[in-house]
Amino acid sequence: MDELAHLGERLRAYRLGRDLTLEQLAARTAVSISTLSRLESGKRQASLELLLPITRSLGIGLDDLIRPQAPDPRVTGTAVRRDGMLIARLSPEGSPVQTYKITYPPGRELPRLRVHDGYEWLYVLSGRLRLRLGERNLVLTHGEAAEFDTRIPHAMSADGRRPAQVISIFNDAGERMHTRLAQETTEDQTPEAQKNGTTPSE
């Protein structure tokens, strides 16, 4: 088992973490110095008979020495386009907080204002981001960040002739509104509503 391959390394780390020499641990456990040394170097196969007195002396459990292999930390998946935006997931599926890199294309009207539960945090990587937040119109540039209550009507788009690249962090409700529903267009908006970033009912 792969989990057993690092047992000796973990055993040595616990011993050193308790400032014990091989001689001191041998005296506590009645396991010879040479046996302990071979266990730590992986040259001696571990047995329950050997590990029980050692783990008791170190104040740890057997499961501390035999840990499951760490899962692959890489986030897989390709970027997708939604209503002109390029959206790349940066957090694994099922995370309580979702992180995305979103590229807003230039030359687009500000989309309709949205409202949902939660908070959003964003950081501008490049370009200029227009943020409509309630009655406020803000422009954020490279290196600027913002955090806001998403129960306030809000909308975002690139400002100027260059795309705006943004890191956005939000909860499940924010993910649904900003990525899954981003395909909704503004076709049902009047020209005046598109200009103001509002829907006809607002």
Automatic annotation (TrEMBL):
<keyword id="KW-0238">DNA-binding</keyword>
<dbReference type="GO" id="GO:0003677">
    <property type="term" value="F:DNA binding"/>
</dbReference>
<dbReference type="GO" id="GO:0003700">
    <property type="term" value="F:DNA-binding transcription factor activity"/>
</dbReference>
<dbReference type="InterPro" id="IPR001387">
    <property type="entry name" value="Cro/C1-type_HTH"/>
</dbReference>
<feature type="domain" description="HTH cro/C1-type">
    <location>
        <begin position="11"/>
        <end position="65"/>
    </location>
</feature>
<dbReference type="InterPro" id="IPR050807">
    <property type="entry name" value="TransReg_Diox_bact_type"/>
</dbReference>
<dbReference type="Pfam" id="PF01381">
    <property type="entry name" value="HTH_3"/>
</dbReference>
<protein>
    <recommendedName>
        <fullName>HTH cro/C1-type domain-containing protein</fullName>
    </recommendedName>
</protein>
<feature type="region of interest" description="Disordered">
    <location>
        <begin position="181"/>
        <end position="202"/>
    </location>
</feature>
<dbReference type="InterPro" id="IPR013096">
    <property type="entry name" value="Cupin_2"/>
</dbReference>
<dbReference type="GO" id="GO:0005829">
    <property type="term" value="C:cytosol"/>
</dbReference>
<feature type="compositionally biased region" description="Polar residues">
    <location>
        <begin position="191"/>
        <end position="202"/>
    </location>
</feature>
<dbReference type="Pfam" id="PF07883">
    <property type="entry name" value="Cupin_2"/>
</dbReference>
